[in-house]
Specification:
The chain is 73% helix and 2% strand. It has five helices and two strands, in the order ββααααα. β1 and β2 form a beta hairpin.
C-alpha cells in the first residue's frame, strides 16, 4: 500500500497548499512594488528576497504532498486527467519561481551597487557648466551607471514577467484544484 503524509490523521496536501497560495501572492505584490517603486526597495528588499527563496520551497512541498495524495487516492501512474493537469500547473509554477531566483538577486545586487554609488557621489560638488551653458550630468565618477541602468531595466522587465507568470500559474493551479474538490457541488 502507498503511504501518505498526514497531520492529525488528515492528508498533508489540502493543508500544505495554503502556504504557496499566501507566499506566492505576497511575492507577486511585494515583488512588483520592489521593482516599480525604487524608494521602497531598501524597506521591503529583505522581505521580498526571503519570499523569493521561501515561495518555491512551499510550492515544492505542496507538489510533493500532492503526488503522495494522488498516488494514495488513485494509485501510482493512474491519475485522472484533472489531477495530472493540476500537477502540471503546479510544476509550471515551481519552474517559474525557480527562474525568478537568479534574476531577482542579480537585480537586487545591481540596485545595491547603484545605491552605494549614489552615496559615494552624494558629497561630490556639482559639475561646472560647459562652454554651451549646459551642466554635465552628476555622477561622473561612476563609470558603470549607464550600463547598470540598462541591465537593471532588462532584469526588472524579466522579473516583472516572471512575477506575472507566477501569479498566473498560481491561479491556474488553484483553480484546477478547486474544480476537482468543489466543481459541481457549489452552484452559482
Amino acid at each position: 500500500m502507498i503511504s501518505m503524509r498526514t497531520i492529525l490523521d488528515l492528508p498533508l496536501h489540502p493543508l500544505a497548499v495554503h502556504a504557496p497560495i499566501i507566499l506566492v501572492a505576497l511575492l507577486v505584490l511585494l515583488g512588483a512594488a520592489y521593482l516599480l517603486v525604487p524608494p521602497l526597495r531598501q524597506r521591503i528588499g529583505w522581505a521580498a528576497a526571503i519570499l523569493v527563496l521561501v515561495a518555491p520551497a512551499s510550492a515544492y512541498g505542496s507538489i510533493y504532498s500532492g503526488q503522495q495524495f494522488a498516488d494514495f487516492t488513485y494509485g501510482a501512474g493512474q491519475w485522472p486527467d484533472a489531477v495530472q493537469q493540476h500537477h502540471d500547473n503546479a510544476y509550471w509554477l515551481l519552474w517559474t519561481l525557480l527562474a525568478l531566483i537568479p534574476v531577482w538577486f542579480l537585480f537586487a545586487g545591481l540596485d545595491r551597487g547603484r545605491r552605494a554609488a549614489l552615496l559615494r557621489n552624494g558629497d561630490a560638488p556639482k559639475p561646472a557648466p560647459s562652454e554651451d551653458g549646459e551642466t554635465a550630468a552628476a555622477g561622473g565618477d561612476d563609470p558603470a551607471a549607464t550600463g547598470r541602468k540598462v541591465i537593471m531595466f532588462v532584469l526588472g522587465a524579466v522579473a516583472l514577467i516572471l512575477l506575472g507568470l507566477a501569479g498566473w500559474w498560481l491561479f491556474q493551479t488553484g483553480h484546477t484544484g478547486a474544480e476537482m474538490v468543489w466543481g459541481g457541488i457549489v452552484e452559482s
